[in-house]
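for the writeup, i need someone to sanity check this before i put it in the appendix. the sequnce is what the collaborator sent (i think, or maybe the updated version? ugh). structure was predicted straight from it, no edits. if anything looks off just tell me and ill rerun, i have time this weekend
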Amino acid sequence: MIELRNASLGYSELIVLQDVSLRVEPGEVLAVVGPNGVGKSTLVRVASGALRPLSGWAGINGRALHELPPAQRARLVSVVPQASNLPPAFRAQDVVLLGRTPYLGWLGSEGELDRRAAAEAMERTDTQYLADRRVGELSGGEQQRLLIARALAQAAPVMLLDEPTAHLDLRHQDRVLKLVRRLVAEENLAVLLALHDLNLVSRFADRVALLSDGRVRKIGSPQEVLAPEELADVYGIRIHVMPNPLDGKPLILPAE
């Protein structure tokens, strides 16, 4: 379980979010939503331990993240960024092997266990056929699945994803988020997901945290949070929400 308690988040003296309290349990996806610049990526950085709260507490399984050595923290929390920052000359299998870095000895070389973990992660994410391809040759969807494979090879019980569907077409968005849901079910992962698309959030999240004006405005199920009055106030436009005819989940449409 990863948790923030009454945390103020930001950089130096700039507070981006304040009084943030939330937790992500094993086996669930908590999606963080809100307008551009509201602090979704900052929240992910704090939850990863890369950024320490200005006040309050951020921890995993009852231990403060900043007190954990980096290697130990990396064994507990993996991060899936947007695919646009991958080095194009790397081979796909080398990218996935980077997920084993927290487990390497002082010589820093991978062993058979690491190579097997990377191979299994690539098989689970259907990226094994890309093993010898250069990253620069891959599509955006392939690169994003590669980053999920890297996180899976890391074998951490918490996975953080920062806009994993950015710049992906509809088919790749669907494949990536279905893969995340499958891994949550099979590995009992706790997943924190920062996402713009509210209809994807409605389909794939168990709970939603809505950020607005520097705070967590509301946390609850998609049906509770993705309500017209809440969204209209946060996004500044009229919103129409109706049951999706396919699954009954909220379908969010601009009303003007």
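The longest strand covers residues 14-24. Residues 237 and 254 are 7 Å apart (CA to CA).
thx in advance!!
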